[in-house]
Amino acid sequence: MCRRRIFESALIPICILTFTLCSPARAWDEDGHIIVTRVAYEKLPPEMPDWLRSEKVRARLEYLSSEPDRWRGQHNIHLDHDNSPDHYIDAEDLEPFGLTLKTLPPLRREFLDLLATKRATGEVKEPPRNAAKDKDYTQLNPGMLPWEIAELQWKLAASWTTLKTYEQYRSHVTDEMIDNARQNVVYQMGVLSHFVGDGSQPLHITRHHHGWVGPNPKGYTMDRGFHAYIDGGVIALHRITREDLIPKARPPKSVSTKNYWPEICGYLEETFQELEPLYELEKTGELERSAGKAFIEDRLLEGGAMLAGVWVAAYEGSHLDEYRIRQLTGKKPTTQKN
After folding, report:
1. Closest among 237, 231, 296, 228 to 7, alpha carbons compared
2. What pLDDT is attached to residue 27?
3. Residue 266 near residue 89, CB atoms below 8 Å
């Protein structure tokens, strides 16, 4: 069915249609990322500090949930080279390297070294890079989303560590230091929310991100506007709002401070398993009906549950910073005599 007719039949303003179909591919538009962040926020467990539970903090988190997409608007080659691959992982493109989402090495550079080695030895042959179209040098990158989530989990933990240390040694710090440390926590929570939200959108875990590519025996859509339609069009079509989903918010997923890597990859694998069901919904027309609404709501709610779980894991993974304590109190590190 024509996307324009879908929007018009639902009486959605044409400006929404134009924005959705012409904007760069992003996993969920701002409304979707806000929903993921809000349903996660609603499930913050009681052990999280009370200062997080304010209108100002909630609004800041919701705003920050789309910040990494705003970086794309700069159109700078260095920023795009670093940022763009962090939003996706194309699961099928791991196969030539003998990898799956479940067997990814946990370190970013370990992964990139493995790819480079297999290419250099001729074990994996790929089409040559098109330098004219690949100005940010990302064409041969299968994506870095799981590493970005893991790294941001620990950046957030580091911000909690600083704040906990300041709070423990309150007489040695100023109000401004506490306030700045809290602001850093909120910033890291908000940026992290974006990438966890990306991970709940099936088109960010596949090479079939802008319509089906290559052999297509099941006749799935090849419409390049499909990605943008899922990011925001279907949310607008079904009028899904954060207020609708707050009562349906799910408890935080279990994310540990030690076994977090397979848990992050498992979350992305679960999302990848929803790829063909999504394409099937589009094929049958059910995407515009109640089944499609339920599917999109489920993805947003799963993103929220995972985000809440990663937030909690980051909080639990923090500790008191001994170096910072020595700096605050003027103590010298003890030395052990032989």
Report:
1. 237
2. 74
3. no
Residue of 127, 129, 98, 125 whose CA lies nearest to 111: 98
Contact 124, 88 (CB under 8 A): no
**Average pLDDT rounded to a whole number, residues 276-295:** 98
pTM (two decimals): 0.91
Over range 301-323, report the average pLDDT: 98
Q: Quickly state the pLDDT bin for 255 (edges 50, 70, 90).
A: very high
Q: Kindly state the tokens that stand for 11.
A: 């009486």
- Give the distance from CA 11 to its chain's centroid: 31
Distance CA 333, CA 264 (A): 37
* Alpha-carbon span 281 to 241, nearest angstrom: 21
End-to-end CA distance of the chain: 79
Task: Give mean pLDDT, residues 286-304.
Answer: 98
A 10 A CB-CB count for 136 gives: 17
C-beta separation of 159 from 184 below 8 A: yes
Average pLDDT, the chain: 92
DSSP for residue 231: I
